[in-house]
Amino acid sequence: MTSPFAIRLAGAAGEVTGSCTLVEAGSRRIAVDFGLIQGKPEREATNVDMQIDRPDWLDALALTHVHADHCGRLPMLTRSGFSGPVLCTHATAQLLPLILGGAARLQKRLASEAKATGRVAPAVLFDQREVDRLCSMLVPLDFGEPFEVAAGLTLTLHPIGHILGAACVLLTD
């Protein structure tokens, strides 16, 4: 029996950055991307908000590519109880530790510099330990390789020409 998909935009709704789409098929839940909100300072300040009510309820997360507006908040999920697989392409799995590790170092440096000069320090969204924890959850897939996310729910990544390793997600029930 096929169940209908319920889709909720938890990011990049009404704007370009902060991509996050939640998909439910019955009791099965998957998120696609968890990106950084960029642009005006008041919008960037909302990056500390999770936008996913219960990350620990997710069966998996699919990552389409390593641009910050698609992956820039992923390590925050581990702090909130997410422990499922992070499904991505092999190239994305190789690039992600570099991108997120650099972001963790930059956040730490900017906060330290702000404190040293008496300015209000920007929020540090995650640290290297959270990056390492998130990267240990990566499950690299070949393009076209089906992966059963949960009972009867299958994810397949297909190539798109955006950047190295970028993929679109096909979910079938």
Describe this structure in words.
The protein is of the alpha/beta class. It contains five helices and nine strands. Helices cover 28% and strands 27% of the residues. The chain has a six-stranded mixed β-sheet. The chain has a three-stranded antiparallel β-sheet with strand order 7-8-9, with no helix packed on it. It is globular and about 55 Å long. The N and C termini lie close together (9 Å).
Total helices: the number is 5
Structural classification? alpha/beta
**Global outline:** globular
* Mean of residue pLDDT values: 93
Strands across the major sheet, in which order? 1-2-3-4-5-6
| Most strands sheet | 6 strands, mixed
Q: What percent of residues adopt helix (DSSP H or I)?
A: 25-40%
Oligomeric state of shown chains: single chain
Number of strands: 9
Spatial separation of the terminal alpha carbons: 9 Å
Strand content: 25-35%
SSE pattern: EEEHEHHEHHEEEE
Q: Using only CA atoms, what is the Rg? A: 16 Å
What ranges have pLDDT less than 50 throughout 5 or more consecutive residues? none
